[in-house]
Amino acid sequence: MSDLLSLTRAARLVGVTRAALQKKIQVGELISYDGMVTIENLLSCYPDAQLEDNVEFKRISQIKERAFGKRVFEYVLPDAEVLAARIAELSKTLANSQEQVKQFNVLLDKLWNKFSEIESQSKSEVRTAMENLKAWIKQEVSATLESGYNNSVAIKDGVLRIMTAQVTVLPSKHDFLVEGQDTLLEAAMRAGIPLNYGCSGGNCGLCKAKVVSGQVKKTRHHDFAISEADKNQGCILLCSNTAVSDVVLEAAVAGGVQDIPFQQISAKVKAIDALAGDMVLLHLQTPRSERLRFLAGQSVTLRVGQSFTAELPIASCPCDDRNLLFHLRRLPGNLFSDYVFERLNQNDVVEVEGPQGEFILHEKSPRPLYFFAFDGGFAPIKSVIEHAMSLEAESIHLYRIGSSQEHIYLPNVGRAWADALDNFHYEQQVAGFDLRAVNGKREEKLNEQLSSIVASNAEITQSDIYLAGPESALAVAEQFFLDIGLPKTRVFVAIVN
Q: Do 402 and 483 sit in the same domain of this protein?
């Protein structure tokens, strides 16, 4: 079927998430063919999809917001040569379609002549039947070729194919869209797909992949030498090429923490900003040629002043692997904390080792996601949520529980997510006691808070639960969810003291 669309492209066209389409497929409202849908079936589910709507405007607005200092049109529009190649490809499709229409008309003429020949040799009743048949065929052809008919989704798909290219990764069957001047690697990372890579600057060759079909274009220089044998096999570096047309790649995708290598990187302090009370945001930036590959929710070990170390969760998304964010609370008497607050300055070097930890998003789970961040546990949960949003998770609930109001730092982040996303729920509560020491009546009060949350969310026992924060609070929270019937395989814990 020539009009088959991937779920990624179909979701973009009608302005919904992939998860929404998958849900319709599961309940039988939308027919799919090996993970693809037709334009006709898509329109039957979304009859109000219009060419004039603002889906693409919203998408471009989002692109502008995350432009990272680039000029907007440099980011939104593809490279001129890529744009020309995509238009040329669509022109070929149009020319083929026009040629098919010509051949169709020739066939109709031949058919009409054959009908006339049969009529001349037939009796009156056969001639009458042939006249009726010819009238019916003429009516159906006229209706099919009616000049005023426009398939709005098909037209939007044509525009989308000029502005973006779709990439399918084998054997994992992940797919994503390449927008603007993104490389294949950058586009995959924005879509939350952990392709294998190292420096992302064309030096190490770890992002080498094979082009199975489609056309790519080299947009950045790379020093890594690809052998002639690999070139003949269609191998390229993902960090240095973009997609001209829809592309199918053979490339390695991390299936879990075991696929992420241990790394040692010397990063520099870009900024140390106060968040709330005794909490700061530590912003480290790695060299352009040596970026940290990690999965959302993982931690690293930081070393300052030659010998002071701390294991901290990364509070940023893997999609921006060069800028690493950490939330650090002042701990009097802690040598690492004292050094950061009193002696660490902008451009100082901080050694980064890792990543480590298994507090990561279980991407294949179709269940709603519930996140509980206690005090500094917001750091790994923020990273995981940003990854879940890039994968267009169907339903996300975030609960911030702080020892005090001051411990709920960056509250506007959760509010902004809730305002921007229909499927995002945010709530914050104050425990009124130190969550690092939960026992006795404090344990009872925390259980009461969790019970209240469960009472207002009937689906929570059918969800995946992510808990992060001080060990004392987590021990109570984890046991609470196990006691209400959730299996241990659906309750994930990250200790952040």
A: yes
CA distance 299 to 380: 8
Does 470 sit behind a cis peptide bond, omega within 30 degrees of 0 on the bond before it? no
CA distance 115 to 453: 75
Give the amino acid at 120.
S
Phi/psi for 298 (5° steps) reads: -80, 165
User: How many structural domains compose the chain?
Assistant: 3
The answer to whether residues 249 and 184 touch, using CB atoms and an 8 Å cutoff, is yes
Q: Which amino acid belongs to residue 487?
A: P
DSSP string, 192-226: T--B--SSSSSSS-TTEEEEEES-EEE-S---SPP
- Of 368, 392, 386, nearest in space to 12 by CA: 392
Highest-pLDDT range among 105-114, 248-257, 417-426, 477-486:
477-486
* C-alpha pair distances (Å), 296 with each of 147, 201, 316, 396: 51, 21, 8, 16
Backbone angles phi, psi at 373, to 5 degrees: -110, 115
Domain with 341, as residue range(s), is 258-356
Number of H helices, E strands in the chain: 15, 20
Q: Are 477 and 451 in contact (CB under 8 A)?
A: no
pTM score, whole prediction: 0.75
Residue at a domain's end among 255, 288, 307 = 255
Reduced to 3 states (helix: H, G, I; strand: E, B; else coil), residue 307 is: coil
Whether residues 282 and 384 fall in one domain = no
Same domain, 341 and 384: no
Interval 227-255: pLDDT, tens: 999 999 999 999 999 998 889 999 988 88
Q: Residue 8: which residues within 8 A CB-CB, separation 6 or more?
A: 18, 166, 175, 176, 177
